[in-house]
Amino acid sequence: MELALLLTTLGALFLVGLAADTVGRRTSLPRVTLLLACGIAVGGSGLDLIPPEMRSLYDFLSVMALTMVAFLLGSSLTLDRLAQHGRAILLISVCIVLITMAAVSLGLWLAGLPAPVALLLGAIATATAPAATQDAIRQAGAEGPFVDLILGVVAIDDAWGLLAFSLAAVGAHMLSGGAGAGLLTGALWEIGGAVALGGLIGWPAAYLTGRLSQGEPLETEAIGLVCLTAGLAIWLDVSFLIAGMVAGMLIANLARHHERAFHEIEHLQWPFMVLFFLLAGARLDLSLLAGIGLIGGLFILLRSVARIAGGWIGGRLAGLPALERNWCGAALLPQAGVAVGMALIAAREFPQHGEMILTLTIGSTVVFELIGPVMTLIAIRRVQRARR
Fold it and tell me: By C-alpha distance, which of 295, 385, 296, 307 is closest to 99?
C-alpha cells in the first residue's frame, strides 16, 4: 500500500506541475510561484494531502534539482560572457551583498534587536534562490546581455553570501563575548573545497563530453556528473552549489560541443524542479507569517529596498543603461533554501536567539519564495520589451 500511495502521489504531483506549466505559459504568473502555491494548498498549511513517504524524498530531490541548476548557471560563465559582463557581474554582486547586509543589520539594530542578531540576519538576507531565478528566466524565454548579467550574478551571489555570513557569525560571537573563528575556517573550506571539487570533476568531464554522441550516452553522463558532484560535495561537507557551478563553468569553456551536455541537463531538470517546488511549498508553514510581526515586515522591506538599491548602485558603477540598473535588484529578490541553512547554523551557534532567527528567516522566506519570482519575471520582461 505504501508503494501504491507513493506512486499515485508522484503521478498526481507531476500532473499538477504540468498544469502549473500550462497556466504559466498562458499568463504572466511564474511557474515557480504557481508550484509553490499548489504545494502550500496540498501541504501542511492546506489540505495536508502529502504522505510522509513523499516528504522523505525532499532532501534528495532538492539536492538533485539545485545541483542541476548550479551546472546550468556555471555554463553561463563562459570566457566570452565574462569578458563582456565580468566587471558588471562583480560590481553588482558585491554591491548587493554589502548594501543588503549593512542596511538590514543597521535597520534591525535601530529597531531594537540585539546587535549580534541584527548582524546575523543582515548576512542571511544576502542569500538568493538560484532555482527560482533561473526558472523565471527560462519561462520568459529571454536572452541577451541583461539575462547573462542576472545569471552571472546569481551564480556567484551565494559564494559571497556564505563568506558574509561567516564573517557576521565571527562578529556576532565577538559582540557576545565569545570566539567564532572556527566558523570562518569552515566557510573557507566550504567554498574553497567546493571550487577544488568542481575543478576535479569538471576538467576531465570537459574532455569526455566532447567525445560522446547525443542522446542516451549524454543523458547518462549528465545524470552521473550531477549525482557524483552532489554526493562528493555532501560527503566532503562543501557547497554542492558552488561545486556544480565550477564544474559547469569548466565544461562550458573547455568541452567541444558542450551545449549538448547542458541541453541534456535542461531536459532532465524540469521533472525534478516540479517535485522540488511542490514539496518546498508543502513544507512552508504559513502560521510562521503571523509570528514574524513588525520586525519581520521590517526585514522584508529592508532586504527588498537594499537589493534594489545595491543593483542600481552596482549597475551605475558598471555603466549599465538606466533601465537595466533600475530592474537589476528587483530581478534578484527570490530567497530560499540557502537562507534557511544559514539560519539553522545561526540558531545552533546562538541558541539563546535561535527561535527568533529561525522564525523570522523561514517566515520571510515564504514571502520571498512567492513574490520573488514574480518580480524576476516582471524585470526580465520589462527590459526585454524595451529592447525590441
Answer: 307
- Distance, in Å, from the CA atom of 365 to the CA atom of 96, rounded to the nearest integer, reads 18
Q: Given the C-alpha cell 513517504, which residue does it identify? A: 53
CA gap 139, 334 in Å, rounded: 15
Alpha-carbon separation of residue 245 from 75, 156, 191, 218, 361 (angstroms): 8, 9, 12, 19, 25
Nearest to 230 by CA among 58, 32, 71: 71
Rg (CA), the chain: 20
Q: CA-to-CA distance for 60 and 271, rounded, in angstroms?
A: 13
d(CA 93, CA 128): 11
Task: For residue 224, count other CB atoms closer than 10 A to its CB.
Answer: 12
* 321 φ/ψ angles, rounded to the nearest 5 degrees: -60, 155
Taken as a whole, the chain contains a residue count of 388
Q: Residue 116, exposed/middle/buried by CB under 10 A (0-12, 13-18, 19+)?
A: buried
pLDDT of residue 228: 92
Distance CA 239, CA 236 (A): 9
| pLDDT tens readout for residues 92-125 | 989 999 999 999 999 999 988 888 888 989 988 8
Q: In angstroms, how far is the first alpha carbon of the chain from the final one?
A: 55
pTM: 0.76
d(CA 135, CA 131): 6
How remote is the C-alpha of 382 from its chain's centroid? Answer: 22
327's grid cell: 530592474
Q: How many Å apart are CA 168 and CA 325, to the nearest integer?
A: 28
**From CA 64, how far away is CA 70, in angstroms rounded?**
10
Q: What is the pLDDT of residues 230-250, one digit of tens each?
A: 999 989 988 888 888 888 888
212 backbone dihedrals φ, ψ, rounded to 5°: -100, 145
C-alpha cell at 145: 546581455
> Could you give the CA distance from residue 87 to residue 252 in angstroms, rounded to a whole number?
20
Any residues with CB less than 8 A from the CB of 191 and at least 6 apart, and which? 159, 162, 163, 238, 239, 242
